[in-house]
Write a structure and sequence with these properties.
This protein is α+β, with helices and mostly antiparallel strands and 194 residues long. It has a single domain, classed as NADH Oxidase, CATH 3.40.109. Helix content is 35%, strand content 15%. It is built from 8 helices and 4 strands. Strands 1-2-4-3 form a 4-stranded antiparallel sheet, sandwiched between helices. The model has no long low-confidence stretch (mean pLDDT 96).
């Protein structure tokens, strides 16, 4: 049984945003089609970017690829190792640290966040779900992908079809069925009131 995770908002927002949530229970039989994978990656490619630098870089790792199991085993931490192997794909999001002229790109993480959010929205539009994984062993991912020190690994995005929460156990199950919560808008506003 799937919990109702539709966001309760102070004003109507686009359904694709209201319905987005981050499951840990993924259908272990579903594999993304090439069209789905390309659409998600293209959405990231066309994200806004300061000065059009586009610092993001992706590693798309399908569950059918042997690197998927390695990434889950040595690149992820904690209970991410238990549920992430069921995701259809893992997308490693890394950034180029410097601009073409050798200066540090101080906006790289902001740009990558925009990029990741565009991929999440595109996946949701396709009827898929995503889960950002921050519990990483970044050095292991760098080694697995053969990256040099000009790259910084930021996050891994799990993508797939949501599965019943009951396939999870313990804290993962409890988080899966818990209601979605956010701070109230008044709590996060620094200035101004709509």
């Amino acid at each position: 049984m799937q919990p109702n995770k539709i966001a309760i908002t102070a004003a109507p927002i686009a359904p694709v945003l209201a319905e987005r949530w981050s499951p840990r229970s993924f259908d272990h039989e579903y594999v993304l089609s090439q069209d789905e994978a390309l659409a998600i990656l293209e959405a990231g490619r066309w994200a806004p970017s300061a000065n059009n630098i586009q610092p993001w870089r992706f590693a798309y790792v399908s569950r059918n690829d042997s690197l998927h199991a390695q990434l889950c085993e040595i690149g992820l931490t904690g209970f991410n190792q238990a549920w992430a192997p069921h995701a259809s794909a893992l997308i490693v999001i890394a950034v180029k640290i410097e601009t073409a002229d050798g200066r540090e790109n101080t906006g790289r993480k902001y740009d990558a966040g925009l990029c990741a959010s565009m991929m999440v929205v595109q996946a949701q539009e396709l009827g898929l779900h995503t889960h950002h994984i921050g519990g990483l062993v970044r050095e292991e991912i760098v080694t697995l992908l053969g990256l040099d020190d000009s790259y910084e690994v930021l996050n891994v995005l799990a993508v797939g079809k949501v599965a019943p929460a009951e396939q999870l156990e313990g804290p993962a199950y409890e988080r899966e069925v818990a209601p979605r919560v956010r701070l109230e808008l008044d709590e996060i506003m620094l200035y101004g009131k709509p």
